[in-house]
TrEMBL record:
InterPro entries xrefs: Biotin_BS, Biotin_Carboxyl_Carrier/Decarb, Biotin_lipoyl, Single_hybrid_motif
Record-annotated Lipoyl-binding domain positions: 91-164
Source species, domain of life: Bacteria
PROSITE patterns the record matches: BIOTIN, BIOTINYL_LIPOYL
Protein name (record): Biotin-requiring enzyme
PANTHER family for this protein: OXALOACETATE DECARBOXYLASE ALPHA CHAIN (PTHR45266)
Xref: Pfam families: Biotin_lipoyl
SUPFAM superfamilies: Single hybrid motif (SSF51230)
Amino acid sequence: MKKAQIGEKTFEIEQEQDEYILNGQPFTFDLAKSGNGDLHFLVDNKSFQTKIISVNKEEKTVDVKVNNTPYTVSVKDNLDLLLAKLGMESVGQAGASDVKAPMPGLILEVLVSEGQEVKKGDHLLILEAMKMENVIKSPADGVINGLHATKGESVEKGKILLSL
């Protein structure tokens, strides 16, 4: 089962072999892809021209235009639904986390300090690797709980650089 949220409306979608069920009711659809990435759906004999604008894999959202009207669709799969049922929906989301070196390199600059609040996407460190400067950004909103790397330090891939 999958759940899709569009505005205040929630849709439950299930597939049982060749049959699709939407909110407990069977439905039929046909899909055609055009060369420019647009999709054309025929759902229960109603036509929908759809264009995917953007996909955010981290937040599991898709911005689409359906018949030229924009929508943001939030999608939950079986794992998301199971985690929510177990009260663990925040697993893998923002919260206490470690920021690790994505590759071996040299810490050129530490741009934050312990106790500092950061927002998702804020610059945390500059890591030189393969003669290129790489900005390490915050994966989530939070507070710097610990710095584990210093300016001038050589680090290996996977070393914890700081904790949020």
